[in-house]
Amino acid sequence: QEIRLKFKGMYGKDLEVEMAGELGNDFGAIVSDMLKPQGEYDATTLNTAFKGKGTDEATLIEVMCSQTNAEMKAIKLYYKKLYGVELEAALKDETSGDFKSLLIALSAACR
Q1: Cβ-Cβ contacts under 8 Å for 27 (sequence gap 6 or more)
Q2: CB–CB of 95/56 below 8 Å?
Q3: From CA 61, how far away is CA 103, in angstroms rounded?
Q4: How far apart are the C-alpha atoms of 22 and 24, rounded to whole Å?
Q5: Regions of the chain short of the pLDDT cut 70
Q6: What's the pLDDT score for residue 49?
Q7: pLDDT at 91
Q8: pTM given for the model
Q9: Which in 39, 43, 50, 85 has the greatest CB count within 10 A?
Q10: How far apart are the first and last CA of the chain?
Q11: Residue 91 burial by CB count (10 A; 0-12/13-18/19+): exposed, middle or buried?
């Protein structure tokens, strides 16, 4: 974020837009992800873990279990903003059993 703001101040251009034009698809996507706020990146990572055939449980564990309360609150805000649904609702729809209970408890950000 700091680099992005500095670039905008120095050149009057958005770093992400400039980089997208210069880099290939895969590398450009990685750089674009690195320029996102951490909460937004984590929210998109969780949403990606829900997509496709089955749920990527390893990704859910990695993201959900490694956050502070403040980070989890930021993820929840970004998730709602980006996808129009509460993170807890998505977790309820995409997981089951004790795993679902654990992830919902973690999403409460009350550690």
Answers
A1: none
A2: no
A3: 8
A4: 7
A5: 1
A6: 94
A7: 95
A8: 0.80
A9: 43
A10: 27
A11: buried
